[in-house]
Design goal:
The chain has helices spanning about 1-20, 115-125, 130-145, 160-170, 215-225, 265-275, 285-295, 310-320, 325-340, 345-360, 380-390, 395-400, 405-410, and strands at about 45-50, 60-65, 70-75, 90-100, 100-105, 145-150, 180, 185, 210, 230-235, 235-240, 255-260, 280-285, 300-305, 320-325, 425-430, 445-450, 450-455. It is an alpha/beta fold. The protein folds into 2 domains: about 45-100 and about 420-455, Urease, subunit C, domain 1 (Roll); about 100-410, Metal-dependent hydrolases (TIM Barrel, Alpha-Beta Barrel), CATH 3.20.20. Strand 13, helix 7 and strand 14 (about 300-305) form a beta-alpha-beta unit. Helix 5 (about 215-225) runs parallel beside helix 6 (about 265-275), helix 6 crosses helix 7 and helix 7 (about 285-295) packs parallel to helix 8.
Length: about 450
């Protein structure tokens, strides 16, 4: 019996080493054991030099009192106030504290796809298992960048692996942000890579293909059955500058497209998702894709490089969120232009103009980076600088990644602001992001649910 016990201890040590160092506050765990998650200290005091939260103006010298995973009090710093014995004190008195950041457009299972060759390689030469391993690394990176919650809007041919990554994070098997996932995404026959192969050569697709309202409704049901939190649809393709746009459409230049789904198909998918209390995200980059999506009642427009003024007004009326992805457009434009699609260079300018008009119109704008569309070694917070460059104030850009993003996810009662009762998702930076938004590219403290994953231990 003693020898068996010794072997068990040795085996446990090997497993722990294979998993890597646990985050601060973590206890021993077994694979798949939901009862052994990383545990925050029972009582924690986070001392902030400055607290920025959209509920009030920036405040100096603020203490955040935490119990377990939640915030119980936000109060001015007072060194003589009583705290229970054993309280852990985290000193961020030289830093600016903020709510944990939220990225509502990521792809943890994609590792950059500037060209078609990049994309083909990942689907044809990398196994789903290998891509999932890389996806766990992407999840860890985005958490350490300061994004404590993400919405991952499809696996690009990796099936339902995002559901398993989410489960592994929730179980404490791997570190990562809270996730809402969209699994496989939906598109019509002939519209989504992999394309261009001989008819007799079967190749995988980056989406689930469905044609016709009934088939698409069934696909929505299937994805929800396998764990999708969101339904992702691709509503357009084949972008071009339209020299003769439809009457009344403007302002120019108008980015037009070929719509994928019919309006009936879109409405069927939206109806089925909403009937099951799920939301729909629409990849809609140009004129028809955006218009059809908003008319069909989707919940978010992703990318939206061109949105007509009329559709901006319709989005406001319907409460549709806009998730622009400015950086990724600039990141891929040159490579795609060299590959034979020069329209991408023009799309960068059109996207910036659309963003300015959306800000001015008052559309609800949430933060999304499309990380995975670019290399995960690039911090998704690079998106903030472009948002300020093209029309948002630093406070508006920050709000898009905190309070507004939490509302888009339906999690505003749990995250998005720092106030009593909410989860203790806190990040910190040196400097003032309201004066220089780019300091958010250098988060040096990350706490999710009261557990520290980066910085002061």
């Amino acid at each position: 019996m003693k020898r068996v016990g010794i072997l068990a201890v040795l085996l446990s040590a090997i497993v722990v080493r294979a998993l890597g160092q646990a985050p601060a506050g973590a206890q021993g765990r077994k694979i798949g054991d939901f009862a052994n998650l990383p545990e925050p200290p029972a009582n924690t005091l986070v001392r902030c030099g400055t607290l920025i939260d959209e509920r009030s103006e920036p405040r100096k010298n603020i203490d955040l009192v935490l119990r377990d995973a939640r915030i119980v009090e936000v109060r001015p710093t007072a060194y003589d106030q009583f705290m229970p014995g054993g309280t852990k004190v985290i000193d961020l008195s030289q830093e600016t504290c903020l709510p944990g950041l939220i990225d509502t457009h990521t792809h943890v299972l994609l590792q950059g796809d500037i060209t078609a060759e990049d994309y083909d390689r990942q689907l044809l030469k990398w196994s789903p298992e290998y891509r999932t391993i890389l996806g766990t690394q992407s999840a860890r990176k985005v958490l350490e960048y300061g994004f404590t919650t993400i919405r991952d809007v499809e696996t690009e041919g990796a099936g339902y692996a995002d559901v398993d990554i989410k489960k592994a994070i929730n179980a404490g098997v791997i570190p990562g942000p809270r996730m809402q996932v969209a699994t496989r995404a939906l598109d019509v026959t002939g519209s989504y890579p992999l394309l261009g192969y001989a008819p007799n050569v079967p190749v995988p697709h980056g989406v689930q293909v469905c044609d016709g309202a009934d088939a698409c409704r069934k696909a929505v049901r299937e994805q929800i059955m396998y764990g999708a939190d969101w339904i992702k649809v691709y509503s357009d393709r084949s972008y071009y500058i339209d020299p003769n746009p439809p009457p009344g459409i403007g302002p120019p230049p108008v980015l037009n497209d070929i719509p994928t789904f019919t309006i009936d198909e879109l409405r069927a998918m939206v109806d089925e998702a909403h009937r099951q209390r799920h939301k729909v995200a629409s990849h809609a980059t140009a004129l028809n894709g955006v218009h059809n999506s908003v008319e069909a009642g989707v919940d978010t427009i992703e990318h939206g490089d061109y949105i007509s003024d009329a559709d901006l007004k319709l989005m406001i009326q319907k409460g549709t969120y806009f998730v622009p992805t400015l950086y990724v457009g600039e990141y891929v434009a040159e490579g795609r232009a060299k590959a034979g699609a020069p329209v991408w260079l023009e799309m960068v300018k059109i996207s910036a103009d659309t963003f300015r008009r959306a800000v001015k119109a008052g559309v609800k704008i949430a933060f999304g980076s499309d990380a995975g569309g670019f290399d995960w070694n690039i911090n998704p917070a690079v998106e903030f600088g472009l948002r300020v460059k093209y029309g948002q104030t630093p406070a508006e850009a920050l709000r898009s990644a905190t309070a507004t993003a939490s509302e888009l996810l339906g999690m505003q009662k749990e995250i998005g602001t720092i106030e009593p009762g909410k989860l203790a998702d806190i990040v910190a930076v040196k400097g003032d992001p309201l004066a220089d938004i780019t300091v958010l590219e250098h988060v040096d403290f990350v706490m999710k649910g009261g557990v520290v994953y980066k910085g002061a231990r």
